[in-house]
Design the sequence.
């Protein structure tokens, strides 16, 4: 019954998307595809695994990949990531910060609620502007694109959780301001197959596509963030020392190059060290990439993750670094939580 319910959710998302955007567009009009920075990811662990994370993301960054994972939230988890994806010379930086925690009575599946706040931002500094009246006069400004996520996840069955995120987009370029509101809907099911733990996750991001409306700029245009449906499956292997994860991104109404696969593997040779590798590609076959990374755990509460993602251009560096601090629930609470 639980698996049937999860399948019904997946089919519902797919059918709704099909009617909303029939087919995969090959040519997208100007204004569509806004906020591409929001698809980079917020965790070096997932980036090292080719971007896979819908079923296996962990820690404070998990609501970005699947807010239903918040049903397993510890008492407090803080995570962040920083990168200069195009090198220092271009002045482009990408950073994120996430905080999550647990609310409600963890002994009751209907009130075990995890909540989270996530901030991510792309900044482009030292952009030159020339004065039309005096071509010799030059000044510089910084453009920023930000996304805020307010997320919650709850158990609805012992092996099934659901999640919801509200999205707030903020764009600033000179005097121009872009603002948009969106929503994510997600689910996660967990079960065993021949003793192997398996998870199946769904995250429908920017449901129906999100409108980012500009003000105080020429024409005051409307831009649109694409509706992306992420489906993922993961399994623990080799006596829980290995992990295999596969995701597929269906960007509704977008070109084939934006329909992406993510494949990742993770191994833990010793308790404090994790090694990772992944592959990501699109249905057009234009951008296949191999990814790599490592994770180091300290004192059961501090984790440092590194990922190398080959850049798309000669200006890229491809280095991502993220940190996590976790303060777990007391053991007696964990034993009472649903699904344990």
Sequence:
């Amino acid at each position: 019954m639980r698996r049937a319910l999860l399948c019904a959710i997946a089919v519902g998302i797919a059918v709704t998307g099909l009617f909303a955007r029939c087919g995969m567009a090959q040519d997208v009009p100007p204004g569509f595809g806004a906020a591409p920075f929001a698809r980079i990811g917020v965790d070096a662990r997932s980036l090292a695994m080719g971007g896979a994370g819908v079923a296996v993301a962990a820690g404070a960054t998990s609501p970005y990949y699947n807010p239903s994972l918040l049903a397993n939230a510890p008492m407090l988890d803080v995570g962040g990531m920083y990168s200069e994806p195009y090198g220092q010379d271009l002045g482009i930086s990408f950073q994120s910060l996430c905080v999550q925690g647990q609310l409600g009575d963890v002994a009751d599946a209907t009130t075990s609620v995890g909540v989270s706040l996530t901030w991510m931002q792309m900044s482009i500094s030292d952009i030159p502007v020339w004065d039309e009246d005096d071509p010799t006069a030059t000044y510089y400004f910084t453009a920023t694109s930000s996304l805020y996520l307010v997320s919650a996840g709850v158990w609805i069955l012992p092996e099934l959780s659901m999640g919801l995120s509200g999205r707030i987009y903020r764009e600033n370029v000179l005097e121009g301001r872009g603002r948009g509101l969106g929503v994510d809907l997600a689910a996660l099911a967990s079960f065993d197959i021949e003793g192997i733990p398996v998870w199946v996750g769904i995250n429908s991001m920017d449901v129906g596509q999100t409108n980012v409306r500009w003000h105080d700029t020429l024409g005051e245009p409307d831009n649109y963030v694409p509706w992306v449906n992420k489906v993922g499956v993961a399994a623990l292997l080799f006596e829980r020392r290995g992990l295999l994860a596969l995701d597929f991104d269906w960007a509704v109404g977008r070109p084939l190059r934006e329909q992406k696969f993510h494949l990742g593997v993770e191994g833990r040779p010793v308790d404090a060290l994790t090694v990772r590798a992944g592959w990501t590609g699109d249905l057009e076959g234009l951008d296949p990439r191999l990814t790599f990374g490592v994770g180091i755990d300290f004192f059961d509460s501090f984790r440092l993750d590194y990922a190398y993602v080959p850049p798309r251009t000669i200006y890229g560096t491809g280095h991502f670094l993220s940190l996590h601090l976790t303060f777990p629930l007391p053991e007696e609470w964990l034993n009472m939580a649903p699904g344990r």
